[in-house]
Amino acid sequence: MLFSKKNLKLLSVPLSIKNPITVLVLGICSALAVTAQLKPAVVMALSVTIVTAFANMIVSLIRNTIPNRIRIIVQLVVVAALVILVDQVLKAFVYDVSKQLSVFVGLIITNCILMGRLEAFALANKPWPSFLDGIGNGAGYGLILVTIGFFRELLGSGSLWGYKLIPESWYIINGGWYSNNGMMILPPMALIVVGVIIWIQRIKNPELIEN
Amino acid sequence: MDTNGNKYTIIYASVMVVVVAVMLAIAATQLKPFQDANILIEKKQNILKSVNIVADSKQANDLFTNTIKELFIVNSKGERVEGDAFKVDLKVEHSKPVDQRKLPVYVADMGEKGKVYIIPLRGTGLWGPIWGYIALTSDMNTVYGANFDHQGETPGLGAEISTEKFQKPFIGKTIFDQSGLFTSIIVAKIGEKADPAHSVDAISGGTITSKGLQKMLYDDLSTYQEFFKTLKN
Question: Is the pLDDT confidence value at B75 over 70?
Fold first, then answer.
């Protein structure tokens, strides 16, 4: 029963027709901030997935005790405590990883997807489905992040995961014909890439188009 | 039970805050010794990296004692001052007037290449502090190596200062021009006119971090000018 059809749907739906970025339009801020290169995009996607899953589960466990009037504050405290705790442990035992995550920690806490899922799903569902919903939404977010990061790094820096793909001799400075698109490095281009992804997705799924 | 009553809400909030606070406080105090040890090792790794030695966290202690043969503090007049150079906190020193600052110097023995002088740096990027170490050969002019790090610069943009791609071009640059005038090193954008002997390329999209780094180099190296003179003579 753990992986019933209904539960598996919680994992797959956020990847497509209920994607947190392209359909629910949540988490746009970090999608613009960390996608200039592929590597930070992947690190951010993994962190958000883990935190969303566990925060969802914890909030779901205590959902019947939370006073309605302060529920957002309770959710925020759960998320913040979780993120700080994880960061402290990483700092003590895997310092390198924690350095990589440094700036993301703050970004995770403020990520709208987290609050959105806690509010919309975890408060009304049992812990296990909530956990899966967190994984699914984190993955849906990650999918878009990695796609944007792929195009921005490739077209903006001519590399992927830090490795140069465009041969040096192609560049105009070295007598070639090619030049990196500097616009790609700047956040506005991330927004345009998101726009293009949304466009393609809606062509493929006409049911997403509002009247 | 009525979970919407005032009494319940207040008690719930108080208990939650206390529980979370205690949990985080215990975690922070228990993990502090491990974290401090990591920070010290990282400092040694950073210093070693400025003389182009890459050490993993296990080797760092040994390599540091084998490489850094001398560490001392000078003041802005270039005179030696008592104290432990490794423990000097640049954040504290930067809040003092220049003539009261303790300026740490690490001397690395690079074998055939002779002595290399490592100067610690600290400045401000876009989101928070940036810091680093710059190593000068014994002519106190040519850069032997440099290493920079940051607290929270934007990944992919300002955070690039901690990559080798940005740091490598510093090697071989000079901080004085031919007439002996202090020029520091300019972090120049494409199209900006700068003497290639004293400049490196800035990071696209990371202008404020690049300029902060340039200012850090200028400000901190200039306080060592008298010390450089005493070594040159």
Answer: yes
Percent of chain A with pLDDT over 90: 31
pLDDT at A46: 87
Chain A residues whose beta carbon lies within 8 Å of the beta carbon of residue B159: 103
Nearest CA-CA partner of B68 in B137, B115, B138: B115
End-to-end CA distance of chain B: 84
Q: Counting beta carbons within 10 angstroms of the beta carbon of residue B72, is it exposed (0 to 12), middle (13 to 18) or buried (19 or more)?
A: middle
The reported pLDDT for the residue numbered B2 is 76
Q: Are B119 and B220 in contact (CB under 8 A)?
A: yes
* Res. A100: pLDDT tops 70: no
ipTM associated with this complex = 0.74
- pLDDT at res. A132: 94
B56 Cβ neighbours under 8 A, 6+ residues apart: none
Q: Tokens 């903006």 appear where? A: A156
Instruction: For residue A186, give how far its alpha carbon lies from the nearest alpha carbon of chain B (Å).
Output: 6
User: Which A positions 59-78 lie with beta carbon below 8 A of chain B?
Assistant: 64-70, 73-74, 77
CB half-sphere exposure, B110, CA atoms < 13 A: 20
Strand pairing category for B186-188 and B199-201: parallel
Query: Can you tell me the distance from the alpha carbon of B207 to that of B189, in angstroms, rounded to the nearest whole number?
Result: 8
CA angle A178, A180, A183 (to 5 degrees): 140
Beta B186-188 vs B103-109: how paired, if at all?
A: unpaired
Q: What residues of chain B, 170 to 209, have a C-beta less than 8 Å from chain A?
A: 204-205
A40 contacts chain B (CB < 8 A) = yes
Q: Contacts of residue B23 in chain A, CB cutoff 8 Å?
A: 81, 85
What is the SS3 string spanning B160-193? HHHCHHHHHHHCCCECECCCCCECCCEEECCCCC
- Each residue's pLDDT tens digit, B82-106: 888 888 888 888 888 888 888 999 9
